[in-house]
Design goal:
The chain has 290 residues and is α/β, with parallel strands linked by helices. Helix content is 36%, strand content 12%. It is built from nine helices and nine strands. Strands 6-5-4-7-8-9 form a six-stranded parallel sheet, with helices on both faces. Strands 1-2-3 form a three-stranded parallel sheet, with no helix packed on it. The longest helix is centred in the N-terminal third of the chain and has 18 residues, at 17-34.
Length: 290
């Protein structure tokens, strides 16, 4: 981000407890050395109040409802999930600025891609020998197993999209979850009549550049979904666990797939049917064509 001058990284790994505590105090020392005028704590939990309290920052902004609110001398009165309402996570985070300004801010995430990366990905696309107007991206991976969809459903969807719209899937190869791409191809696509692209391992920036060139992305609720929001791509997002209200900020190119969440429920295991996915695919294509 062009607005970020420096990053102080907190190593949160607890595999080595001694290293964990050493890293924490090294982080605190770096923050104190910076002599910040203002710290805005977007998290207000875990170690963050302790780091803020130890920073000697003149102004320390946090949420009024948190139990450690004595740490902060400027406080936002916003309370998430008040009266059972679910606001998008972006709105929750941006509400921290409430005491500083009366302005409202767009909630769309931002992501920049270097020109050199764009060119590198275009060269990679040339080797694939495909018309990118017929290509969409499928992301299978997610940090949580509860967010994964069965490969059988993905294959049904891929087959339907190809037979009805002649669109070809480009399947993301997820770091540490490479087996997802491999199992979908080996168990379903290899012996089918559906053409496909097995993407090589790409960096996050390279995946973003590829998504920009494609028609849309079909993905579970995970990082690449948010990346696609930033790129203003069409997004067909499958929610098997998290309430989509937590991520929806009114993007017209976003179509969510979920069965039902009770009022005020943030997380609940969902059973997704092919018929639901099929109807949402048709809705997305209509939206792209309108």
């Amino acid at each position: 981000s062009p607005y970020c001058d420096a990053i102080i990284v907190v190593n949160r790994s607890k595999k080595d407890r001694l290293a964990y505590y050493v890293n924490k105090f090294v982080t605190i020392a770096k923050v104190r050395k910076t002599r910040m005028d203002l710290i805005v704590d977007l998290y207000n939990g875990g170690s963050s109040p302790f780091i803020v309290f130890s920073s000697f920052a003149k102004y320390r902004l946090g949420y009024n409802h948190q139990k450690n609110n004595f740490v902060y001398n400027i406080k936002s009165s916003y309370v998430p999930y008040e009266n059972g309402l679910i606001d998008s996570f972006n709105l929750q985070v941006m509400s921290i600025l409430q005491p500083l300004t009366n302005k409202t801010f767009p909630l769309k995430p931002l992501f920049s891609i270097l020109d050199t990366t764009e060119q590198s990905v275009k060269s990679y696309i040339d080797t694939l020998d495909v018309d990118m107007q017929s290509v969409y991206v499928i992301n299978l991976g997610s940090g949580g197993e509860e967010k994964l969809l069965e490969n059988a459903l993905y294959f049904q969807t891929i087959e339907y999209i190809y037979e009805k719209y002649n669109f070809i899937p480009a399947i993301v190869r997820n770091p540490s979850q490479e087996y997802l791409q491999e199992s979908l191809i080996n168990a379903y696509l290899k012996d089918s009549k559906v053409p496909y692209i097995a993407l090589k391992a790409l960096s996050l920036e390279e995946v973003g550049a590829f998504i920009k060139q494609s028609r849309f992305i079909l993905t579970p609720d995970t990082g690449l979904m948010h990346l696609a929001f930033a790129l203003e791509s069409y997004v067909l997002a499958i929610f098997t666990y998290t309430n989509p209200k937590l991520v929806d900020f009114g993007n017209e190119k976003f179509i969510s797939i979920f069965e039902k969440f009770e009022e005020g429920v943030l997380h609940a295991k969902q059973t997704i049917s092919f018929e639901l996915i099929r109807d949402k695919v048709d809705a997305l294509v209509r939206k792209m064509q309108s």
